[in-house]
Amino acid sequence: MLPVVIRKTAENFGSSTAYVSPSGQTVTYNQLDKFSEEVAAWMQIQGIQEGSVVALCLPSSIEYILCYLATAKLGAVTAGVNPRFTARERQEALKALEPDLILTSDNLGERGPDNSQVEYVEISENTTEFLRNNRLKNSTIEVLPPNPDRAVCICFTSGSTGTPKGALFTNRQLQAISDIDTGGVWGGAGHRYASTEFAHVGVMTKLPWLLASAGTTHLLEKWKAEPILKLIHDYRISAVSAIAPQIALMLQVNNLSRFDFSCVQAIVTGGALASPELVAAGREIFGAPWSIRYSSTESGGVGLGTALDADDEEALHTVGRPRSGVEATIRDKEGETVTTGSIGEIWLRSEAVMSKYWNDPISTAETIVGGWLRTGDLAFEDDAGCFHLAGRTSEMFIRGGYNVFPLEVEAVISSHKQVAEVTIVPRKDAVMGEIGVAVVVPTDLRDPPTLESLRNHAEHQLASYKLPEAIRIIPKLPRNTSDKIDRMKLREHEDQ
Description:
By secondary structure, the protein is an alpha/beta fold. The protein has 15 helices and 26 strands.
């Protein structure tokens, strides 16, 4: 699918700018097509062919896109290894992959498995020098026949509940993802910015329709709120795409009135829960509706979403309904559908769901059951058909025989005026088995909330057994490579 898309886009919009590097260096769609062809010819000499696995241990750069396109043109599989992974996590990913070729930049030097070839890629700011040591100039390769079941990419999970696992996607799934996504506010020519690492499912599985839109993507060396706001202002970007913590950082930038946000038509977030207060503030500042998206790496980055014209109950307190082409149910531990209002695990089914975990048949069998994806996320469905998240199956804890779902408690406590962010984690207790600890980032470190004030604030909305029984004040919450809260690290602190 990717080779067809880039060739067609180059044919129709060849002179249009595809990417702008952090320093302002540009590459056109014609150049993406031509350079990736030359990289593919070089890869062939390295022994890469249909079915080979190429690991990209590269920063989110133009070179990354060129290598991904080149690999796809050969019918090989691209595995993005997030540069934000620790050295241990990268090695775990490479061990699971057993790649035929590892492409890495000097600052992310890797040693792969014994049978893997490692080649170094220079990250350049000169268009004519892109991958100069990894291209056969003026070379072309044979065009492969279409195959909807050809494997295209492997996307690693964030590892928030353990070692990252690689989700495999084929052409068929990338086509389904494009069909689902292009019916929303995304797509269409224009300017946009990269809000996630390229190894993330948000780029790996969505690159076909991103390229097909013939838009211009601005890259940043590192995500920062103020430069993003300036891009929105300068290039009249219509969709503010981010995860919720990134929007929160945008709203904290000084003197927001200097930016003109009249171009913004929608705010779209995923990957982390957005509090009702944040959604309300974001809608006011940007003057646009906010759609919360719920998905996962395994689902191909598509799942549920709130409507842009949703009422406040849906927009502020839920993750919406299944998107077109997606089915969703809530089931108990035995896999039976629960009644409306009851908490259970979200199961998803769509043509976009991954084929399997790479080299992990046991986890695959546990996760994909009868064509349904077990997400590991807890939620309940209301009478309007909207889903309300309640946390991960691994996050739920039991206090005195009662189940406590952290997200439910966090949603209430986050509205406390002295709370900027909060996470509820369990602590072992000799009497109750486990109790809830509120880990709080206060709005003012000099004047943090007390445990009593949190309990008083929440006692009319939550049963007493759900209320936190301890508090820990910290300056900021730890986050993983996908900017999700690292609950494992917080729990480890309580287990000490």
